[in-house]
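S.,

Sequence below, as promised.
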Amino acid sequence: MQDINNHNHQSDIPQEMQKPKMRFRVSWQIIFVGLMFLYMYLPILVLTFYSFNQSRYSAGWQGFTLQWYVKLFQDTRILSALKNSLTVGLSAVAISAVIGTLMAVGLSRFRFPGKGIYLGVSYLPLIIPDIAIAVSTLVFLAALAIPLSLSTIIGAHVVFCLAYVALVVSTRLADLDPHLEEAALDLGATPERAFIKVLLPQLMPGIISGCLLAFVLSMDDFLIASFTAGSGATTLPMEIFSRIRTGVKPDINALSVILIMGSGLLAFAGEFLRNQSQKN
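The prediction came back faster than expected:
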């Protein structure tokens, strides 16, 4: 009798309610995110596609080839410009890592007259347009009669790399427990030893992350380098710009793909280190 009642009860329920259908609803947020990523990364995908094109021009597809990547590593001008960019980037980051870390620690740990003004001035390169930094640096070098060379590019890059390293290290400092350094001082450690043995290891993920960010920005810079470079001091962005005036060739496409992959790996490594430092 109970089975009959259950059957009658089920027969009273509309059929579309007895077997609900799985409906996949696409919200406007998913569509918006998809369009945003398509807008951002479609040019990169097109660039990557044409870097394997056998044709010397990007007008049409004529077959798959790796010759442009092989030719790229045989180009002495590209290799020389890459060497200059690496020299500038590594030198600027090394200088900025030392000064930026000390600046961040000093601003965080000590109080002195004019600290607020100094704090605001030290981060000005983050918001000042690159063209203003380039022109002001060029005028400064001309006023002191300093000849333009690779060293002047390094000095100009230290200006904005320093601000980025200090900003990332300051963010890391804000999350640290200040009592650990005080405990080391109470146990007899000198301030220098407490900094090296206690504070510096905790700051290292932030320092590395800031250095990776500054290195990518230095490798990518064209405007400041073009204003402060001397004869023969051609960086990679300057060499690329000089070649695309007559049209984009497949070897430049290949070089751009390699740069994008390298920058992406460095950005991923920096983000990974930042997340690890936050967990710890």
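The chain has one domain: 68-279.

Coffee later?
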